Amino acid sequence: MKFHFKTSYEQDIRIFEDRAKAGWYGLLALLAAAAPYLLDEYMLGELTLMLIWALAGLGLMLLAGHTGQPSLGHAAFLACGAYMEVWLAERGVPFPISFPLAGLFAGVVGALIAVPALKMSGIYLAIATLAVGIITEDVIILLEDFTGGIGGVYAPSITLLGTDIDRYADGGRPFYWLCLAALIAVNLIYLNILRSPTGRAFVAIRDSEVSARAMGVNVARYKTLAFGLSCFFTGLAGALLAHFLGAFNYEAFLVLISVQMLLMVTIGGLGSIHGAYLGAIVVVFLPQAIVRLREQVAELMGAGNASIPGLDTGVFALVLIAFILIEPTGLYGRWLKIRTFFELFPLYRKDMFKRHKSFLKTERMK
After folding, report:
1. DSSP states of 345-357
2. Among 289, 259, 240, 277, which residue's Cα sits nearest to residue 58?
3. Cα distance between residue 109 and residue 95, in whole Å
4. CA distance 172 to 176
5. Which residues 6+ apart lie within 8 Å of 132 measured at CB?
6. Are 318 and 311 in contact (CB under 8 A)?
7. Closest C-alpha to 284, from 80, 16, 55
8. DSSP-H helix ranges across the chain
9. pLDDT tens, 302-347?
10. Distance of alpha carbon 261 from alpha carbon 265, whole angstroms
11. Does 85 have pLDDT greater than 60?
12. pLDDT in tens, 32-52
């Protein structure tokens, strides 16, 4: 087992604990960059979608995982980023400018909504954000001049350094690398936020609002900031999703997408950046695995291509529910338990990760 003896504050806030861990992440980044040469066009498209969902998951993870504010309406901010990106692109704004502006638009909208919404907490905040998600569907239809209404809009190709980039250009490789670069950049921003006083204030609010306020943290301001940053990251994911889909309308941002996003970060592991990636892998690739397994079972039984409508979605939902019941700490929590078991064997104790949650009297009914 490796121990890190820290002798300075700079060591405590380093992005990587040691050079070995930095090397492993560097190797993973190189492998991700080489993926277009190792996968066929279909699998590369699925991997690209996974990167976009991971980016959206980082946005929700900042709010739900590190600030403790649940949201059931984050699909609304995906829509803000997507429609603003298309609106700017149609008016000739270059992608290096339209992309951050789309995220900024979503972040500003999120911060404005947060001012009244974050006066609530717990289940009441979840219901308020759910209402935002439901209202957004009607707003998209009503703002037909901006969103195309029910017919939707078409996302133009990205022009970058004189090259047209879209999902299908050159087998999808340039667009994949663009999504990968955006995800790495956001990941670095996320890490630096967490190791700053702002990030520590977020975690303090998550653990106990009363205690954070007693320590001098401006809870209302940091909640609003967390919501704005979360929506900013989610808006960036929405901008990339617009170009990935090519054509879309309000049905791409239904409330079920918000629920799926919350399930994604919960299954991956709340409170960890790794959880956003693991959850995105499950959300994107598990339905594909279920479909292929169903087809193989149908062939073995001689049923041809016959299927029960909604079966794939039902199985997917049951798998997610079962996983949450069996392993509430998520995939990353399970990995930590397995790693700790081998590091501490034979001294590992079964209840080492059992959480005994306690409340202040003023927080019991929140």
Report:
1. TTS--TTTT----
2. 277
3. 21
4. 6
5. 73, 76, 113, 117
6. no
7. 55
8. 9-12, 19-34, 41-60, 75-90, 95-117, 123-142, 144-147, 173-194, 197-207, 209-214, 219-245, 255-268, 273-300, 311-326, 330-344
9. 655 555 666 666 777 777 777 778 877 888 888 888 887 887 777 7
10. 7
11. yes
12. 999 999 988 889 999 999 999
- Nearest in space to 64 (alpha carbons), one of 235, 304, 269, 351: 269
Q: What is the CA radius of gyration of the chain?
A: 22
How far apart CA 141 and CA 154 sit, in angstroms, is 15
Six token digits for residue 161 = 């350094």
Strand partners, 158: 165
- Binning pLDDT at 50, 70 and 90, where does residue 166 land? confident
Token reading at 172 = 């999808």
Model confidence pLDDT, tens digit, residues 167-180: 777 778 899 999 99
Q: What is the mean pLDDT of residues 253-264?
A: 88
Looking at domain 33-351, does it have CATH number 2.60.40? Answer: no
Contacts of 106 (CB under 8 A, 6+ apart): 77, 78, 80, 81, 84, 231, 232, 234, 235, 236, 238
The string over 316-329, giving b where at least 16 C-beta atoms fall within 10 Å of a residue's C-beta and e elsewhere, is beebbeebeeeeeb
Burial label, 175 (beta-carbon count in 10 A; 0-12, 13-18, 19+): buried
- pLDDT, residue 167, reads 79
CA 106 – CA 129 distance, rounded (Å)? 14
Phi-psi region of 264 (alpha: psi -120 to 50; beta: other; left: phi over 0): alpha
Which sequence spans correspond to the domains of the chain?
33-351
Asked if pLDDT for residue 298 goes beyond 80, the answer is no
The pLDDT assigned to 104 comes to 95
Distance of CA 62 to the CA centre of its chain: 9
- Tell me if 360 sits within 8 A of 208, measured CB to CB: yes
Beta bridge partners of 235: none
Specify the length of the chain in residues: 366
